[in-house]
Specification:
Oligomer: single chain
Number of helices: 6
Strand order of the largest sheet: 1-6
Radius of gyration: 17 Å
Number of strands: 6
Structural class: alpha+beta
Number of domains: 1
């Protein structure tokens, strides 16, 4: 029974997508960052200030504008002019994993930024899920 439950959990919670490709070192992912608070995208300075109180990691970013939906965009303070990271070996988990094939992100239409060298592919072909 335990094996069944373990398998069931793995199948229902796995991402079902894998990341392919490689970084092109364009720096766009370090300049067009969005953050989420309580399941909602940050849209105001006040929400960002609250984030910084919650975790020191957010002090590495500064507001750099808004996207077409009114979502606040952030840029990493560690981005150097040559698009490399000044804290590469100590960078945050989110930076190391970007773009992460998160099921919620993909189901809601998320994708890597234009020009990104990464893309997502299904873990298995559709026909394999039918077996």
């Amino acid at each position: 029974m335990f094996e069944f439950l373990k398998n069931f959990k793995r199948q229902t919670t796995s991402n079902k997508f894998i990341r392919k490709g490689k970084c092109r070192r364009c720096g766009e992912c370090c300049r067009n960052i969005t953050f989420v608070v309580d399941g909602k995208l940050v849209r105001t300075e006040e929400e960002f200030e609250d984030l910084k109180k919650w975790k020191s990691y957010y002090h590495n970013f500064f507001p750099s504008g808004f996207d077409e939906r009114g979502v606040m965009l952030f840029t990493c303070k560690c981005l150097k002019p040559d698009n490399s990271c000044s804290m590469y070996w100590l960078r945050a988990k989110g930076c190391r994993e970007y773009p992460k094939p998160d099921k919620k992100f993909l189901v809601n239409g998320g994708k890597p930024l234009d020009g990104c060298g990464f893309w997502f592919e299904p873990e298995k072909k559709f026909e394999e899920y039918l077996k």
